[in-house]
Amino acid sequence: MAFVFFGYDQGVFSGIIGNPNWLDQFKHPKSSLEGIIVSIYNLGMFAGCVLNFIVGEKLGRRKSMWLAMAFVIIGAILQTSAFSQPHLMVARFITGIGTGIDTTTTPVYQSELCDANIRGRLVSSEPLFVGVGIVIAYWFDYGMSFVGGSISWRLPIGCQMVFAFAVIVLVLGLPESPRWLYARGRNQEALQVLCDMYDAPPEDKKIQHEQDAVLEVLAIERETGEYRWSQLFKRDRVQTGRRVLLAYGMQFMNQMGGINLVVYYVTSVLEDNVGLDRNLSLILGGCINTMFVIGSLVPTFFLDRLGRRRPMMFGSFGLAISMMMIAILLSFSGTSSGKSTSAASVAFFFTYMLIFGASVNCIPWVYVPEILPLHVRSKGAAIGTSANALWNFFVVMITPVITEALPWQWPLVFMALNFLFILLVYFCYPETANLTLEEMDLLFTPGDDDSSRKKLGRSTAVVRSLDRSGAWRKRGSDSAEADYSDPQVFKDGLGAEHMEKVV
Predict the structure, then answer these.
(1) φ and ψ of 326, to 5 deg
(2) What string of DSSP letters covers 465-481?
(3) Interior/surface letters 55-89, b for 16+ CB within 10 angstroms, e for the rest
(4) Quick one: which of 12, 70, 185, 400 has the most CB atoms within 10 Å?
C-alpha cells in the first residue's frame, strides 16, 4: 500500500498539468516553472531521505512509517486547497518529505521481515505496486478530465490521503524489524518476532541459526563504530563506504535511464512532440503506463531465479534500444513521412515501459537494502533513495525544457546513459540473489573467517561463487540445518550436491 501511494503520487500530476482549469488557476506557467512545480516534490523526497538518515535508526521502522504518512497527509491537504503557485510548491515539497521517508523505510523493513529465498520476489513487488498506483492515477485523471471546474484536479490530488490512512492502519498490525530490535539490545522482543514470523518455537534450528547470524554480524559490524559521513570513503572490514556508494549508484541508474520523463510527461510528449490530440494522448498515456505493471509481474515471480545483475544489464540494453528508436522515428518530423513515423514512435514508449517494469524498475529497490550492512542499513538506504529523489528531481525539472529545445534528440541522452549502465553493472556490482542479509558481509570481508563461516551457515567460498556465477537455488536441506562447512557437502567450494545453478 505504501508503494501504491508512491506510484499514485508520481502519476497523478501527469494528467493534471494539461488540465485547463489547473492552468488557469496557476496562470499558465512557462515550461521552466512547470518543471519546478512538478519536480519540487522530488526535492522534498530528497529532504525526506536526509531526515530519515538522521532519525530513522532511532525511531525504528514502524514509527518512521507513521512519521512519513503524517507528512503526506499534511502535504495532500495543502495541495488540495492550493490557490497559488507558492502554496502548491510548498505543499508538494511537504508531501515529498513523507514520500522520501516512506520509500527509504519500506524496502528495508520488508527485507528484514522475509526469508532470503523469497526476499527478491517480495521486495520487487513494491515497484509492481508503484506501477499499480501510477495506472490508478492516470485513469482517474482521464475520467476526471470530463468533469469541469477545479474538482477535476483537486479530487485526484486529495485522494492521496486515502492511501496514507490505509498505511497507518496496516502498520498497526505489523511487528518491528527483528534485526533493528537486536541492534538495540532488545533480544527477547526480537526473538519473539522471529518466532511469529516462522511460526516456530525459540528452540527451532532455523530461528536459532538466524538469531546467531544476526548477532555475529552485529559483532563484526560494531567494530567499525557508528557510521558517520566522514567514513563514506574509508575502507573498514565490511567495506561500508563501497557498499553505500553501490546503493547510491543503483538508484542513480533507476532514474537516469529516463523513466520519469515518461511517467510525468508522456501525455505532454505525445501531444507536443508526436502531434496527437489531448484525449488520445491521455488514453495512450494510461495504456503505456499499464505496460509498467505488466512488466513488473516478471520480477515479482522470477527475480530470485533470474538474479540481480543479468536483468539489470539486459533491461538497460532494452531501454537504450527503445530510446534510440524513438529518436530515429521522431527525427522525421516535418518531412512528408513525419506523421506516420511519429505515430510509430509510440510503439517504443510501450516497449520502454514494459522493459523498465520487468527489470530496472524493481531491482534497485531490492538491491539497495540487500547490499548494505546492518549498522548502516537505514542510513544507507536513505542515501540510496536520496539518489533516486535527487536525480528524479533533475530529470523532471529539465524535461519540459529539453523536449521543447530538442524535439527529437532528447532520447539520445538517455540511450547513451543506458548503454553506459550495462558496463557499470557488469564491472562494479556483485550478485546478491539468495544470500541472507548476514551473508552479504562475506562478499566484502577479505579472507576466510572460519568462525563466521560456521555461524552464518555457508562457507565464504560458496558465497563468493554465488557472486561470480550468478543466481543459485538451494535444493535439499535448508541452510539453517545443513552443515555447509563440510567439504563433502561443498565440493570444490560450490556445493554441487545441494545447489543448482539457475539460468
Answers:
(1) -60, -45
(2) HHHHH--EEE-SS-TTT
(3) ebbebbbbebbebbbebbbbbbbbbbebeeeeebb
(4) 400
Instruction: Output phi, psi for 357, to 5 deg.
Output: -60, -35
Contacts (Cβ under 8 Å, ≥6 apart) of 282 = 15, 138, 141, 142, 145, 267
Query: What pLDDT score does 462 carry?
Result: 46
Q: How far apart are the first and last CA of the chain?
A: 32
Q: C-alpha cell of 363? A: 531491482
What is the spatial distance between Cα 131 and Cα 110, in angstroms, rounded to a whole number?
18
| Contact predicate 280/419, CB 8 Å | no
| Residue 427 identity | F
What pLDDT score was predicted for residue 220?
Answer: 66
Dist CA 65 CA 73 (whole Å): 12
Query: What distance lies between CA 38 and its chain's CA centroid?
Result: 20
312 vs 315: CA distance, rounded Å: 5
For 113, how many CA atoms within 13 A lie in the half-sphere containing its CB? 18
Per-residue DSSP letter, 494? S
Give the C-alpha separation, 315 to 337, whole Å: 31
Per-residue 3-state assignment (H helix, E strand, C coil) for 9-23? HHHCCCCCCCCHHHH
Residue 356's pLDDT is 92
Cell (9 digits) for 248: 547510491
Residue 380: CB atoms within 10 Å: 27
Rg (CA), the chain: 23
Round to whole Å and give the CA distance between 2 and 55.
Answer: 19
Q: Record the cell numbers describing residue 104, joined without a space.
A: 527509504
- Cα–Cα distance measured from residue 205 to residue 445, given in angstroms and rounded to the nearest whole number: 26
Q: What is the dihedral of CA 5, 9, 15, 16, to 10 degrees?
A: 130
Cell of 25: 488557476
Q: Where are the strands (E) in 43-151, listed by range?
A: none
By residue count, the chain amounts to 503
> What letter would DSSP give residue 449?
-
User: Which amino acid makes up residue 42?
Assistant: N
Helices (H), 149-204: 151-158, 160-172, 178-183, 187-198
For the chain, which ranges sit under pLDDT 70? 115-121, 123-124, 220-234, 374, 378, 437-438, 446-503
Count the neighbouring beta carbons within 10 Å of the beta carbon of residue 305.
15
Helices assigned H by DSSP within 359-445: 363-371, 377-405, 410-428, 440-444
